[in-house]
Design a protein that fits this description.
463 residues; mainly alpha; 15 helices
């Protein structure tokens, strides 16, 4: 189905995701085992959130200045180093909370720009190979679902046969392999356009043929979008100034220029925050309390099974149902599974609920991911994706900290019910949002100043 650069992109992405999925299961368990404090995990996530956000913004600035493929390679190598140092430090001095913070910050330097660079490369690779972007996003989501099945299962197996921290060597190896595969992408992939060509993009993207740049976008926004392509400013000050411009342009691209993109982004934030609570702290703490920490990996694998089936179904049947129909069915299905999870039933029912969430999350993730790529012009993808990933790195830790605070205050059983209630609020808000009623090509979706978009912008935050 896919070949050449697209296949290499998928392999690199799969290796990186495999390492991250293993680490996502192992790290919370290692932290809980070393500190014995539920709030430590939430506090660590929150402490690292702001530096990660800054790295995300500066990474977005760099992506509009330097080769994006090179950023992928270097970032994966830095990530491998930060992970490999954890078992080394644990063996020599023993891991403390301070070490988790220090190495977490080092990992952010690699993870955030690398994640952003991959996102920015995806549409370019598809265009180069003549692959339909919407189909590729669906296929990529299917691959991601397969990895999230294998990764946590491998993590559970590793934890059962070796000290928990030693499982992180596998993550480091995956990051190194991802860097090696990324380095084999064609020479032109990831290269930054010359200034003259770059400057023409905003005018083109503002034409009526492009849904991502509505009519009426101001010249100021276009100038900011083109700024990263100007000659490099010297020193840290120039990079910080560019980072501020990238943040301004990225926020404009995500929230000001297209109300559909704004709505789907906010919906993704709501879902991400709740799932971060579950996966980041609630389930690791719950299964640790049951003296069965390896079940955390099985839970994530169960969700991955559902996502794989759902993503494959969406890839094959995307045109059989309207986008609004896919979104509605997905959100309602996820809500049913979320309520089941919130009740924290016996392990078989809990795994079944996780599978149900994953099943309906597959189509939703592919659809929301398609809008994130499709609605942002090529010349603004570095800043937009950098800002988006940086915001995710704030939303996720906030969710983890929320979960740890709820557990410390209300106990785990009540925390599950609270999270289920929050999920229902996010779902109801999305289904009633006027901006999400028409998900077609949407010639009428350019209305940036409508009250509909303003209403949606506040409700998910309140949730």
């Amino acid at each position: 189905m896919f070949k050449d650069a697209v296949l290499r992109y998928l392999i690199s992405d799969a290796l990186s995701l495999l390492g991250n999925s293993i680490a996502g299961v192992v790290l919370p368990l290692v932290l809980l085992a070393r500190t014995g404090d539920v709030l430590a995990a939430g506090s660590l996530a929150l402490i690292c959130a702001v530096p990660q956000f800054v790295c995300g913004i500066l990474g977005g600035a760099l992506l509009d200045r330097v080769n994006r493929k090179a950023v992928c390679v270097v970032s994966d190598l830095i990530s491998a180093l930060s992970i490999a140092l954890l078992p080394v430090v644990d063996g020599i001095w023993g891991l403390s909370f301070a070490w988790f913070v220090a190495l977490g910050l080092l990992g952010a330097v690699g993870d955030v720009p690398g994640m952003t660079a991959r996102d920015a490369l995806l549409p370019e690779v598809c265009e180069r190979e003549g692959v339909d972007l919407q189909r590729f996003v669906g296929a990529s989501q299917s691959m991601g679902s397969l990895i999230t099945i294998a990764g946590p299962a491998v993590a559970a197996l590793l934890i059962g046969f070796m000290p928990d921290v030693d499982a992180l060597w596998v993550t480091a190896a995956c990051s190194c392999a991802a860097a090696a595969v990324s380095a084999t992408l064609p020479k032109g992939v990831g290269a930054i356009r010359e200034q003259g060509k770059h400057a023409e993009a905003p005018a083109d993207s503002a034409s009526a043929d492009s849904p991502a740049m509505p009519a009426g976008t101001t010249a100021t926004t276009e100038e900011i979008a083109a700024e990263p392509a100007s000659p490099k400013a010297a020193g840290l000050r120039g990079l910080l100034e560019t980072g501020r411009a990238v943040l301004t342009d990225g926020l404009s691209a995500l929230f000001a220029d297209n109300r559909l993109l704004r709505a789907t982004t906010l919906l993704s934030f709501g879902v991400t925050m709740i799932m971060a609570s579950w996966q980041g702290i609630v389930l690791p703490a719950y299964f640790t309390q049951l003296n069965a920490p390896e079940l955390t990996g099985l839970f994530v694998s169960a969700m991955g099974v559902g996502m794989l089936v759902g993503s494959l179904g969406y890839t094959a049947l995307a045109n059989r149902l309207s986008r609004r129909g896919w979104l509605t069915v997905s959100l309602l299905g996820m809500s049913v599974g979320a309520v089941g999870m919130g009740m924290l039933p016996d392990t078989p029912l809990l795994l079944a609920s996780a599978t149900l969430v994953g099943l309906f999350a597959g189509p939703a993730s592919a659809l929301l991911g398609f809008f994130a790529f499709d609605r942002v012009p090529e010349n603004r993808r570095g800043s937009a994706m950098g800002t988006l990933n940086a915001l995710y790195l704030i939303i996720g830790p906030v969710g983890t900290f929320l979960g740890s605070t709820l557990i410390a205050t209300l106990q785990i059983s009540t925390t599950g019910l609270v999270l289920a209630g929050l999920w229902i609020i996010v779902t109801a808000t999305a289904l009633m949002a006027p901006a999400l009623r028409d998900l077609g090509d949407g010639d009428s979706l350019d209305d940036d100043n409508s009250a509909d978009g303003v209403q949606l912008e506040h409700k998910p935050k309140a949730a």
